[in-house]
Amino acid sequence: MIITVTLNPAIDVTYRLPGLTVGEVHRVAEVTSRLGGKGVNVARVLHQLGEPIHAVGLADHDFGEALARELPATFLPELEEVRRTLVVVADSTTSLWEPGRQAAVGADLRLLDLLAEQIADAAAIIVSGSLAPGVPIDLPARIAQLAAAAGVPVLLDLDDAALAAAVGTGAVLTPNEDEAARLLGRPLGDPAVAVAELAARHGGPVVLTRGHRGLIANVGGMAWEVRPPAGVSGNPTGAGDASAAGLARGLANGTPWPEILADAAALGAAAVVMPVAGEIDPDAYKTFLAEVRVRRIDHEED
Amino acid sequence: MIITVTLNPAIDVTYRLPGLTVGEVHRVAEVTSRLGGKGVNVARVLHQLGEPIHAVGLADHDFGEALARELPATFLPELEEVRRTLVVVADSTTSLWEPGRQAAVGADLRLLDLLAEQIADAAAIIVSGSLAPGVPIDLPARIAQLAAAAGVPVLLDLDDAALAAAVGTGAVLTPNEDEAARLLGRPLGDPAVAVAELAARHGGPVVLTRGHRGLIANVGGMAWEVRPPAGVSGNPTGAGDASAAGLARGLANGTPWPEILADAAALGAAAVVMPVAGEIDPDAYKTFLAEVRVRRIDHEED
After folding, report:
1. For a designed S-S bond to B13, which of A42, B33, B131, B280 qualifies (C-beta 3.0 to 4.6 A apart)?
2. pLDDT tens digits for A29-54?
3. Which residue does chain B place closest to A28, by CA atoms?
4. What confidence category does residue B302 fall into, taking pLDDT thresholds of 50, 70 and 90?
5. pLDDT for B219-264, tens place per residue?
6. How far, CA to CA in Å, does A42 sit from each of A49, A124, A157, A228, A246?
7. Which residues of chain A make contact with B99, given a CB cutoff of 8 A?
């Protein structure tokens, strides 16, 4: 079983209407909504791939109950309310992201207790996305320590301060280029050099996620560059979560790194062709998996 | 006790952010929300005035439960979900109104049953606002018949087809100028003449609501023009609901019409000075009540 952890879930709402004009009153033609957040999207992709999962996180009572009707899920009712991300689709797409709501005092400890109960059944843990206000910034790092103590591989797909707090835990880190540059405190420069520097500083695997340019990974001094299939277009939202799902599945199964990385890149591309986050196109995935190119780029192979 | 009936409630959500640009992604700085809908606003004003009320309507389970913590309220869980009205306040104000969600089959009958149980304790009933999809358009008219049979005065603040279906019930009708013109099927022309014509056709009181220009009422051939205090500015949202609350209170107490109308105009103005719908400024209300002018305009007085 793979445990996904979501510390700031969202209800992803889409409004469709003919046009949006600032300063005007509009009647929305169509409203759709979906339970989301990065960890929930990861759980959806893994579930679609047939992997046994348990989606864990912090939410409000209604969100937890509704998600448990869709996926194996336990969300503790620790947030005042779950934020909404509103996407208004008219001639163009306008997004309004609500701030996350405050977590109850002690939510971190109760979540760690829940994970401690489940860790014996876990093949991997993945923590994805931002933290609701009130969640201690080192909670993902403490989850990594709990997993490490139990011998369970862990992937942390974080940003900003939570990512910085996770450096040194040995967990798999998956910064994007902006996040990596902020961690290094300088412009990224040669990405392979940057990833090597981050991995050395971290003492664990670092996978740099580069959108349509693919992945660069550094694991124990070995490094790979992964190029996804060219010319894939669609909705990039959720592609990172699908890639992360692939990494988590590979970690859970002990798959060799080059194969893990190819799988992650193919899943990311197979998410781009789907209109909503948290889903992949299974046929496109098979096709893309054959097209992904993984190249070893560390000096050992030069 | 005054019963307020809301057949298409709303959660009124306000986003505040520095600027809104179509096609961009925005982080919302502040989110506030409030349980609303026209009948709920009427109930809030009456409650603030110290009137015994019972707010009744159709909603979902969460809305009903949350409203009952704020007001004496029974909302049947007959809607899939309660719609949201989103107001985005940036440099200017942009509104996005979700469509109402479908009501369960038989919701109208269950609401009538609820009202039939409560009618013995009612001094007046007021039905305000639109109808959720699936609610038969003549439900307000049937509520008026139920009230009439019990000798309870009823006010219907409706629009479009539900208003048209209520003509002939004898209930107090409160169209605005657009609604009155649509009912007559012609441009409004002299509003006093139009109101007299509508009242004659309806066989009951008609109060034309004219925003900052006040009210014109025709009751059994007697007519009054009511001028609110001049120069009141602020937020007109909810002013009509505050006026309607005044009318309902007057009907419940058997107050003479000129006094009812003065009260309604003063309450409307006292709502304009408040930033949110469903509230009045009590001091402004007292001041405005002294400033309102009610003039008899039917021929009896010429």
Report:
1. B33
2. 999 999 999 999 999 999 999 999 99
3. B98
4. very low
5. 998 999 999 998 888 888 889 999 999 999 999 999 999 999 999 9
6. 11, 13, 11, 19, 9
7. 27-31
**pLDDT over 90 (residue B277):** no
Return d(Cα A33, Cα A84) in angstroms, integer: 9
pLDDT digits (tens, 9 = 90+) for B16-40: 999 999 999 999 999 999 999 999 9
Give the side-chain half-sphere CA count within 13 A for A71: 32
Counting beta carbons within 10 angstroms of the beta carbon of residue A299, is it exposed (0 to 12), middle (13 to 18) or buried (19 or more)?
exposed
- Chain-centroid distance of CA B170 in Å reads 18
Domain ranges of chain B: 1-125+138-156, 174-302
Q: Which residues of A touch B20 (CB under 8 A)?
A: 22, 94
Instruction: Choose which CATH entry (3.75.10.10, 3.90.79.10, 2.50.20.10, 3.40.1190.20) describes domain A2-8+36-82+100-301.
Output: 3.40.1190.20
Radius of gyration of chain A (CA): 19
Separation CA B61–CA A141 (nearest Å): 39
CB contact, 8 Å: A15 with chain B? yes
The span from the CA of B143 to the CA of A88, in Å, is 38
Judge contact between A166 and A255, C-beta under 8 A. no
Degrees, nearest 5: CA angle B118-B120-B123: 95
Query: B174-302 in CATH: which number?
Result: 3.40.1190.20
Using DSSP's 3-state secondary structure scheme, residue A65 falls into: helix
Nearest CB to B20; choose among A22, A91, A99? A22
Q: Do A98 and B21 touch (CB under 8 A)?
A: no
CA A129 → CA A13, A194, A248, B96, B198, distances in Å?
18, 22, 15, 28, 60
Q: Is B49 helix (H, G, I), strand (E, B) or coil?
A: coil
Same fold, B1-125+138-156 and B174-302: yes
Band (A302; pLDDT cuts 50, 70, 90): very low
Task: Establish whether this prediction's ipTM goes over 0.90.
Answer: no
Reduce the DSSP state of residue B154 to 3 states and report it. strand
Is A32 an 8 Å CB contact of chain B?
A: no
At residue A138, what are phi and psi to the nearest 5 degrees?
-95, 10
- Second-level CATH architecture of B1-125+138-156: 3-Layer(aba) Sandwich (3.40)
Q: What is the Cα–Cα distance from A214 to A166, expressed in whole angstroms?
A: 23
